[in-house]
Amino acid sequence: MERPVSPHDQELRMARWTAHVIAPADAPAEGLPALDDEDIAFLPAFWRRNKVPILTLACAAPAHEWWGVPALATALRAEEESFARQRAEFELVRRAWAEEGITAMFIKAAGLPPSFPHTSDNLDVYIPPAKEDMARRLLRRLGYVELRNIEEPHKYLFKRFRFGEEVCAVHLHLRLEWSVSFLHEGQAWERRRPAPDDAGFCVPSPEDALLITLAHALYENKCLKLGDVLRVHACLRRGALDWAYIWGTARSKGWEAGLAFALLAHDKLERVLYAAPALPAEQREQAERALRGIWRRPALEHLAMPARFPLPVRFTFSKGLFFAKMLSDENVPWPARLADAGTHLVTGTKLKLHLHSQPAMLVALSGVDGSGKTTQAQALVHAFRQCGIRARYVWSRGGSSPLAGRMIALGKRLLGRRAGPPSAGPSTEEGREALFRHPLARRLWPWLVWLDLTCQYAYRVRWPLLRGNVVVCDRYLLDALAEMGARLEDAGILRRLPARLLLWLNPRPQRGFVLAVDPKKARARQPAELQQGTLGLAQRQAELYNVLAGKLGYQVIDGEDEAEHVSDTLVYEVLSGYFAGFRTALNALLLSNPKQCSAGREYPPHLPPRPAPMPFPWREHPCAPEDHIP
Predict the structure, then answer these.
(1) What whole-number distance in Å separates Cα of residue 180 and Cα of residue 342?
(2) Can you state the angle between helices 477-488 and 497-504, rounded to 10 degrees?
(3) Neighbours of 74 (CB within 10 A)
(4) What does the radius of gyration of the chain's CA atoms come to, in whole angstroms?
(5) What is the DSSP letter of 255?
C-alpha cells in the first residue's frame, strides 16, 4: 500500500519521527514512520520552521547513521557553529554580569538540551529590575548596540555585530511579558534553577517553563510549533507539577481561558505524536471547564482543525484573548489596564499596517583607493538591515556618470592635440596628468565634478534621505574634494567656487569617517587592473584628507588596523548614535517613539576581541527524560 505523499502527511511523518527520536520511551501514536530520501532532505527546513533544535536530536541519538546524510550533517554542523558562536559571545556578558552580582535566567530554556536557547530569535534573558542600569551599561561596554526601533516596555533588545554580521542578540526582560506581564516575576525568580547542562545561567521551573512556552506560542507567535509541543511534553513528563500554581498564576494574570485553550491544543497535537498523552486527565477536564463564555465556540473550532505543525491560531481569536487578558489582570489598576489596551491597539495597528517610520541618516566613508571603504560601507549597511532599518549603499566618483563620461571623452579629443606629446595617450595616467596641466581643463574640471556629483546626489542621496532612509556613501564630498585638489595640485581647493557649491548644495553627513592608510599599503591591497592614478597622486590625496577631515568634521580611523576591528568600531558607534536619536513624528502619533532613557552614546574605549567558540558537547549530554528539566 502506497504512503500518501501530500505535504500534510509528510509533515506528520516527520513530526512523529522527530518526537520519537527525542522521547524514545514514549511510544509513537501510529508506529514509527519510515522516512524516504525526500523526507530527509526536507527535515532541516521543517525543524527550523518548528523551532526544533537539531542539537537536541543529536543529544538523543549521537551515534545514529542519520548524521552521515549530507543534508543532515550540513544542518547539524551549521547549528553547532551557531551555538558555539552565540554561547561564546554570551559568555563575555555572563562574566561581566557575574562580577556585578547579576544572574541571568533564560526564560525560553524549557525541557530539552541544550538549555542555552540558540535557535531562538533572541536570547531572552530575565534579570531583576534592580539590576537594569548596570546590566545595560555592561552590554554597551561589550559592544552591544541597543535597538530602540522595536523597544517595548520593560524589554531592551541589544545586538552584537562582528564585521557587520549579527553574532548575538540579547533581549533583556525586566518582566515576563509580551506587551503585558504574564507571570509573577518575583515568584518565577524564586523558583528558578541552575541549567542542568550549563553552569553559566539559570532556567525557569517546570511550571514556569510550561506557562512561558504556551503564552509565547499563543499570544506572540499565534501558532503552536512542534518545538513548543516537545518542550511542554518534556515538562509534563518531568513528574508531578504544581498545577495549583499554574492555574493560579494564569487566573491572577487574566489569561486562564488562554491557558486552557493552549493546553487543549497541545494535548491535541501530542495525541498525534504519542500513544499516551502526557497531560493528566484531570487537567484536561479543568481546561475544558475553563473554556467558557464567548471563548468556547472559537476554541472548539480551532481544536476541530486537522493537526499540523505548526498549528496556526487565528489572529482575531488570539487578539481577543489578549485584550481580555489585559482587562482581567487583577494585579493592575483599572486605569492602567485601559491605558495598556489603548496603547497596544494603536501600536498593533501600526504593525498590522506595516507603517515603518525611521529617521534618516547620512554616513560617509572616505579614504584613498584601497583603504577599505567598500568593505566597511557594505558591512555597515548589512548591520543596519539586520536591525530592521532601511539602508542604502551608494558609491560615487566625480566624472563617473555616463553623461560626464561623454563630456570627458569630448574634452580629451579637443584638448588631446595640445595637452602633451603623442606618446601620452588620453587612456594612460600620463595622458590624464598632461590633460590636467592644460589651463582650460584645470578650469572646467571642477565645474564638471560639481555638476556630475550634484545631479547624482540629488536622486541617489537626497531623495532617499527625504524618504527616511539611511544612506551609507562609499566615497562622498570629502573624496571628491581630495581628488579634485590632488589632480589640480591645489591644497586650497576649498577656496574654489565649485568646491564651495559642492558642499553647500549637497547633504552633509551626520557621521563622516576617513580610513587613514599609507598610500603605498593601500595600492598594494588593490589588483593592478583596479588601480587608478599614480602613487604620487595618492600621496597628495592622503595629505588633503588629513587637512580636509578636520575642517569638515570627519573622524579619522586607523584603516591599517584589522578590518574586523575597524568594522566593529564603525558599526557600534554609528548604530549607537543612530538609535540614541530614534524619534519620528509618525511614531509619536502612533505612540511608538522610545520613552525609556538610553545612554546610547556611552562608548567603551576598547571593544573586546572575538572570543573563541564554545561548542556544546552534545555527545556528553544524552537526552534522557529525567534530565530535561532540573
Answers:
(1) 12
(2) 170
(3) 11
(4) 30
(5) -
Q: The C-alpha cell of 580 is what?
A: 540614541
Query: Which cell goes with 564?
Result: 574586523
CATH code for position 545: 3.40.50.300
The span from the CA of 209 to the CA of 108, in Å, is 7
* Pick from 373, 53, 36, 364: nearest CA to 226: 53
- For the chain, the straight-line distance linking the first and the last C-alpha, in angstroms and rounded, comes to 45
pLDDT digits (tens, 9 = 90+) for 397-446: 877 777 666 666 666 666 554 444 433 344 566 666 666 677 777 788 88
The parent domain of residue 554 ranges over 361-580
Rounded Cα distance, 5 and 9, in Å: 6
In a domain, 99, yes or no: no
* Residues 554 and 514: beta-carbon distance below 8 Å: yes
Residues facing 362 on adjacent strands: 471
What would the grid cell of residue 4 be? 500518501
Q: Residue 550's CB: how many other CB atoms inside 10 A?
A: 10
Residue 72 lies inside a defined structural domain of this protein? no
In a domain, 403, yes or no: yes
Type of residue numbered 282: E
Please, are residues 18 and 229 in contact by the beta-carbon 8 Å criterion? Answer: no
Range with the lowest mean pLDDT among 8-12, 134-138, 421-425, 471-475?
421-425
